[in-house]
Amino acid sequence: MVGAVAAGLLCASGLVAPTALAAPAPAPEPGAPALADGLALTPPMGFNNWNSTGCRPEFNEDMVKGIADIFVAKGLKDAGYQYVNLDDCWALPTRDGDGKLVPDPARFPNGIKAVADYVHSKGLKLGIYTSAGTRTCSNVGFPGALGHEYSDARQFADWGVDYLKYDNCNNQGVDAKTRYTTMRDALKATGRPIVYSICEWGENKPWEWASDVGHLWRTTGDISDNWGSMLSILKQNLPLAPHAGPGHWNDPDMLEVGNGGMTDTEYRSHFSMWSVMAAPLLIGSDLRTASDATFGILGNKEVIAVDQDPLGKQGTVLSSAGGRWVVGKEMKDGSRAVALFNETGSAQRISTTARAVGLPAADAYTLRDLWQHRSYNTAGTISATVPAHGTVLVRVSAGADWSAYPPAAELGLSGNPLVQAGRTATLSSVFTDLGRTPARQVSVSLAAPTGWRVKATSPATAGSVSTGRSLRTAWEVTAPDGTPTGSYGLTLKAVYRSPAGARAETVVPLTASVVVAPPAGVSQLGDLPWMSTANGWGPVERNTSNGESAAGDGHPLTIGGVVYAKGLGVHADSAVEYYTGKACERVTADVGVDDEKSSNGSVAFEIWADGTKVASTGVLTTAMPAQSVSADVSGAEVVRLVVTDGGDGIDSDHADWADAELTC
Fold first, then answer.
1. What's the pTM?
2. Which one of 87, 152, 162, 222 is the catalytic residue?
3. CA-CA distance, 231 to 211, in Å (whole number)?
């Protein structure tokens, strides 16, 4: 299991989808049926309480009404959010004497209809939850709708429900298509328009059969509020683009934006990629305590417009080499939304062209940055230095108005920003004019933390930079003696003007790593400082297994009954980077799935040296003993230890780099 509870396949659990990019799903047959009821012609937008409250007592009538109030007060309603959805635990554990569902009087003392009436009074809609089984997914086991479909649907309609999330727990082995089709018919029989969300976790490939059953269908297990979970679900959902469209959407699960387990950069990526995938946008954070940054992400109307485009196309992958993703989405007005998404843990240059994303030939194009809310002209190149785990989302169009905007520019650093305290590192910035017009009065600056010394050793200004040409500037960067190892922010900025005098700027946040030279001899990697880590569940653990989501909750590293005193406990997808400073020769380890998970785990291990894979294992499972792995890392500045899932999702993928040693 990914989480600590045995709820792995529940829509209220922590299970996430496979991380490897699957082959694109077969396209549906021409004219594939869809529900012709006029509902969900764009992906539903709203709120669901599960990710923020679960079944805790705070999930109640006041909370639901409060969310509706916040939708109005904070502009979310105006941005397009309309559904306020109740998840599990709204009912009593037993039906009444007539077989009817009974709202929990402690949570909803005035009943569900009163809540629906309040939500409707705000110009919003109410959603509710049940399961296509005898019980819901909660450990309490509230009544499911299997065998009660028509009665329950009638109750929902009488209460004024506008949206049903229909889960998959306790289904008694009844055929999924039969169960979900029965509820479709029951909802239709009520005569009330109710958006129907199929939540069977993608187990039976609903994208192949549910376009005339429901309006949306979950394609994966549940999302969790961490980078690895979001990334794995993204990779599972992307290949399913041919099956999405107006009235029938792929659903990669709710948004985690604002729940605290990711950075704002990662949350912007989450929101950007869900929008490019034309995914339902269901807020999963507690809006009562949300930060301004969270509201800023969730309320970005330009990004929402990508998601809600009436053409209804899901974005498709154009390239993904090395974790540098380009995903393009055709828009109804002929423009293209383009996401430059950086999966990796360091800044990356990601590039494509207007022609590659499907736009016609033109002298130039208008490029709109949807997070910066600025427009530029480009001669055809769409390119940016994208921060670690970041996304640059643009909308590009052909048309004569491009000349009204300043030229687009790409700004980045060449070389790896690795700094040893007290020693000077040399970096090089590159400003490139991507526009059809020249950039005038170009000035580039590099800012570092207080106390650091930054000095340009070559020109940082230019009177003019023409199309396709660059200004290169060398910089000396010095961190003070005694600066602790770790990551520190740098800001690279260019200010310039268009030929007409309009001011433009490009800002790239970067990360410098303060590192120390590795000690000579043989060292245990579990004892050495790392540069960065990423992990699919909880933190990377030193000299213990991964355990669960909390730091320090691991156990002795154990593979196939053999206990190891030293090493790293991780969870797929995982990456751990070490600075080796071109001074080391070899990495060795015994690797495998930790015994703390008795079944399901399957992983593969990789060792990378400066971007080159130098060793890998095949897929290793829970039932297999440790396998020895060794790699020559001579001359490498950075060594990266990677664990991927075994192709079947990351459930139980607790992996150990046992007795992991670095020889320098």
1. 0.89
2. 222
3. 26
